[in-house]
Amino acid sequence: MLAIAIEERLVYRGDFALGTLMRFLPIVTQVFLWTAVFSATSRGDIAGYSRNDIVAYYLLTMLSRAFSSMPGLAGGIARSIRDGSIKKFLVQPVDYVAFLLATRVAHKLVYYVVAAIPFAVVFFLCRGFFPPAPDAATVAAFLLSLVLSFLLGFFMEATLGMLGFWFMEVSSIVFGYMLVQYLLSGHMFPIDMLAGIPSGLPGTTLADVVTWLPFQFTAFFPAAVWLGKVQGGELVRLLVLEVAWVVVMVVACRVAWARGTRRYSGFGG
Amino acid sequence: MVFAYNSSMHNADAAASDAAPVIRVAGLAKEYRVYDKPEGLMASVRSLFHRESRLVEALRGVALTVERGEFVALLGPNGAGKTTLLKLLSGIITPSRGTATVLGHVPWERADDFRRRFALVMGQRNQLWWDLPAAESFRLHQEIYRIDPAQFARTRDELVDLLGVRKLILQPVRELSLGERMKLELVAALLHEPEVLFLDEPTIGLDVVAQHTIHTFLRHVQTQRQMTVILTTHYMKDVAALCERLVVITGGEILYDGSLAEVVDRFTTHKIVTLDFDEEPDRAAVERLGFPCEVRGPRVILRIDRTRIADALPPLLRGEGVRDVSVEDVPLEEIVAELFRAGAARPPRVTEVVP
Chain B closest CA to A171's CA: distance in Å? Predict the structure, then answer.
């Protein structure tokens, strides 16, 4: 199954290299923006981030997003429900979710092989922005958080796609999700910058609330681990929380699949 | 048969499972809720808040029993519920009411043990991956159905050779013609040697040669494997070439279920007698024979009541200038069209609607 998916992926190898390079473009604007912000204030750091930290942070979230982002997953599931191609997974003795996961792993593997070079070049050129490499335990936690962010991203989007059983069109739901994701995952700014803002709930800040949500694990958390922003007991607590979210989303995905297929009326011929 | 009966006595379990019908359906009904999309902008806006919906009955209590090794044709006008029935039997959808077992399983529970033992081929839908050669999709099926590699290679080669498509399996599927694709779809569906095969309009849009190849192929494989097949089609050629049993379904109900020979027997009151004359006969003289007739140049086509055929033929044969005579059954198309009309004449039925 894995092998087939990899082959299928290689058919379209052309758009790979270009797509990977394009991914780095937004970060250039971010660097300029934050440079302007820092030059406008006389402070050396904002919420504990120096300018170098910020650049390193964005580069690291690129890496987490390379694991957690699932382009086309939710839309693809919804499309296969709408056009009826999901039928073959109902008829054949294969688990649709497992199949999607295998395909996604294959796609990611191919992607990493191809993207490794541009990533390496960019990280090498930007090495000056990074603090000294962390210890082995932190690196291990970082790698674990990347793998978990892949699983979390996968099951969140897959569950979203299953909504296609109830709604004909999920693209606006996906768009809303992307927006929330962009704001709350740390993709746009490090979420611990929200620490000063009260959430409205007594005794908590916005950062506390956002930390409990699953989104931060898909961008912020791995970067924060590498940069040493979370350590010790806090690190363990957050890893446990992440595992819990993965379990919740796996269950949600299963439930959505079981209910959706019972409801399915086999459109499209 | 007696011998087979005796030998199966030694193994009561095997005999029981052999004797049990492969497909058993009772009171099967499926309703869809459809939302009417009103025309016009204002109406569309209103429908955001309140949607008109109604229930459409695609199947209204169907009962059917199919024994091992039967080749059944499922006929009916568009929207009669044929495809809905196949979707229920293959577990794609869940019924509103009623029961069904296929190979002892409830299809919509989708047990893997059940799914490994049947296959569904839908005319337009592909199980083959569009961008890859069929050979790759076959390999994927080997994985999915956990087919033993040696067995897999043997079955694949046999099926591919029977259909004469060996050269095509290494080409990306998107480059193939409709007929070639359908042949490869069939190979893909049969690799795991299913005991039950559902075919939804397998010959739709194919040329005569491809249709014939597929007929020969299906007949061969079905006989060899003692496979149970249900086929929906609009082509009577498929039915005549393949099926002994006919199930006609209209408006979500079974209108007729019986052997092909019986339907011809029961629903044909006439024979078609064709007379070829040396030259164009006198129309008035032909009409005087007293049968409904059609004159096409030197050829005269008469419809003669079956009960009178024995009496009617001798004088015709003695007729002056008759060069050739043939007596045929009414074409199957006509019989089936008649049956469909009979179905339509009953109280109005709601038709299957694809939302």
Answer: 18
